[in-house]
Design a protein that fits this description.
Layout lengths: L9 E2 L2 H6 L7 E9 L17 E4 L4 E5 L11 E15 L2 E12 L2
Length: about 110
């Protein structure tokens, strides 16, 4: 499925997505290294399915749910269009939970 870019699509880095509450719910165009198992970084469990994959830069990674790009490998750079989502993860000792962000790939 090809999603046309619009004026509402924001170019963002992985770090900006993880740190900016304002991007939640927005469409973003983001580039990073495509990580598929077993190259996943230890950032917690996948948000939706075990088949979720990660997009990474030099400092951090974010989970992506949706189809893995063709040719995905730990050395390939990919650019995707995705919607920024978040959810609460309950953790021991913090009943309010921890907010985690992830991407839903649309392209």
């Amino acid at each position: 499925m090809t999603v046309p870019l619009s004026a509402d699509t924001v170019h963002a880095t992985i770090g900006e997505i993880l740190s900016s509450r304002e991007l939640v719910g927005r469409l973003v165009r983001v580039t990073g290294q495509c990580l598929d198992a077993p190259g996943l970084r230890p950032i917690g469990p996948p948000p939706r399915k075990r088949s979720d994959w990660q997009l990474a830069d030099d400092t951090t990674a974010i989970y992506v749910t949706g189809p893995v790009p063709t040719g995905c490998s730990d050395k390939s750079l990919v650019t995707i269009v995705a919607r920024v989502m978040e959810y609460d993860v309950s953790v021991r000792g913090n009943p309010a939970g921890v907010v985690r962000r992830y991407l839903v790939r649309l392209d």
